[in-house]
Design brief:
This protein is 50% helix and 13% strand. The chain is of the alpha+beta class and 137 residues long. A three-stranded antiparallel beta sheet has the order 1-3-2, covered by helices on one side.
């Protein structure tokens, strides 16, 4: 996925200017009249809506379903934040949304790391118990 906001300071939040997605040009295709179908050329412009604002995004066709799923999740999250703080600007809302989602991701990663550590400790304890049990028998 690529974002069209190459210069966010110059773009208004209501309508972002689309950028041109450039696929690498090979010497064999530089002068060709028809474009070969390569993975780089299978990109589609998708208009996404987050908290009521439309953003054009250029996305590889095979990632479009995942993009739309992510947009749905982020839009719902942003709308929940907007209900809690209706006076936030769109930019502030998106910054707050990003920071909160970052924290959720890292909390999940820490939880997973803690679980793995507990699994290792449990396995070590079980191995010790089994070794002790075998020495008794």
């Amino acid at each position: 996925m690529t974002d069209d906001h190459t210069n966010a300071a110059n773009n208004s939040p209501k309508q972002a200017e689309p950028s041109v997605s450039k696929a690498p040009i090979s010497p064999t295709t530089a002068g060709a009249t028809s474009k070969p179908m390569t993975p780089e050329s299978q990109v589609k412009k998708v208009d996404i809506v987050i908290a009521g604002v439309t953003y054009p995004i250029y996305c590889p066709i095979h990632e479009q379903e995942e993009l739309l799923s992510a947009v749905s999740y982020i839009n719902n999250y942003a709308l929940d934040l907007r209900r809690e703080a209706p006076s936030l600007s769109q930019e502030s809302l998106l910054v707050l949304c990003c920071l909160n989602l970052y924290e959720k991701i890292h909390a999940k990663q820490r939880s997973e790391e803690d679980r793995l550590q507990q699994d290792k400790q449990s396995e070590a304890l079980l191995n010790k118990i089994m070794k002790d049990a075998q020495s008794i028998l």
